[in-house]
Amino acid sequence: xxxxxxxxxxxxxxxxxxxxxxxxxxxxxxxxxxxxxxxxxxxxxxxxxxxxxxxxxxxxxxxxxxxxxxxxxxxxxxxxxxxxxxxxxxxxxxxxxxxxxxxxxxxxxxxxxxxxxxxxxxxxxxxxxxxxxxxxxxxxxxxxxxxxxxxxxxxxxxxxxxxxxxxxxxxxxxxxxxxxxxxxxxxxxxxxxxxxxxxxxxxxxxxxxxxxxxxxxxxxxxxxxxxxxxxxxxxxxxxxxxxxxxxxxxxxxxxxxxxxxxxxxxxxxxxxxxxxxxxxxxxxxxxxxxxxxxxxxxxxxxxxxxxxxxxxxxxxxxxxxxxxxxxxxxxxxxxxxxxxxxxxxxxxxxxxxxxxxxxxxxxxxxxxxxxxxxxxxxxxxxxxxxxxxxxxxxxxxxxxxxxxxxxxxxxxxxxx
Length: 416
Hints:
The structure is a single chain. By secondary structure, the protein is an alpha/beta fold. It folds into two domains: 9-158, Rossmann fold, CATH 3.40.50.1970; 165-412, Dehydroquinate synthase-like, alpha domain. Helices cover 57% and strands 10% of the residues. The protein has helices at residues 15-25, 37-53, 72-80, 95-108, 152-157, 160-171, 173-187, 193-208, 210-214, 218-238, 247-261, 269-288, 295-300, 307-318, 322-328, 336-348, 350-359, 363-372, 386-395, 405-412, and strands spanning 9-12, 30-35, 57-62, 89-93, 112-116, 128-133, 136-141, 148-151. The strands form three sheets. It has a four-stranded parallel beta sheet. A two-stranded parallel ribbon has the order 1-8. The protein has a two-stranded antiparallel sheet with strand order 6-7. The longest helix has 21 residues, at 218-238. It is globular and about 70 Å long. The two termini are 38 Å apart.
């Protein structure tokens, strides 16, 4: 897989000076700057001014007030204000603005530049656009930015909870990497050790400097932003989100969908991911506690649900969105032969599975890492009920065709 060609990537107090010079040196003559009310004030107006100073004709696309969700309504709002002559889009915002700009520009065959306003997600340099389409959270592969310019002062001035969310997104890679290894062993999912090592280094850097991130020093926020950038580049280089998205992300997506369906605010992505990571770390503790002795008998004694009961469960959890998930699922039509193959693989690979599970920090340790950076650690911290917490564990795995710790737990008879 070729390395990502995003150049330059700037995280500094001179970022907007470098953006202006970048645009002066480019062949672009006009651009559209996409922001919302808050990010326009924080950065969009300045970014547009720098583009004009570089000689470009600029149109500001500032989204209407209200919660900004990456759904069909907001996508149409952006598309309605585009122009056939647009040569470049500039996303001046956090993850949602960036993802919508990425998707719209890709569909129009136009490049985009990312100007993040918060160190809140790893999507600024990614290729995936997580969108809520027909009520279902989906990640559509589109394009990375040509370049990224993140102004340190703007990042430090972002709401504290957004920085904490970015840190939560990075901490989520602890369990996503473990899930990725499980998927490689039991479902033959593509795997790249060098990508995994790069992701681990990004985690390690943030853990080492978590107190600086928590107090939002310039050095701490820059370290976090570089880690998020590196995670995004790993996704570009690998070609999909697997290195950075496991069961903890599926739980986060499930909660977001349920909140939106109930007309409630979606909660920051990374905040949900951090809380979900604590839950999945606890699941790995339970997996690691299972002895090899009697493993085959344990697996044989677990009765996996039938296709009809699986469909009923999906419909119960997702309502009108369910049929789309049923049609796209690889895990509903598990015949006895496939079940037998997976059970045999679990027994055969148990030593490595156990080592993967045991290497995941304990749930209390993950929670402590999050608290050190002032990030939420429990579902109640997010305002989520115990019922919604348990529902995510039971139903979120249907969202993606990936063999995660949650699917392994089903084979092992581990319940929430």
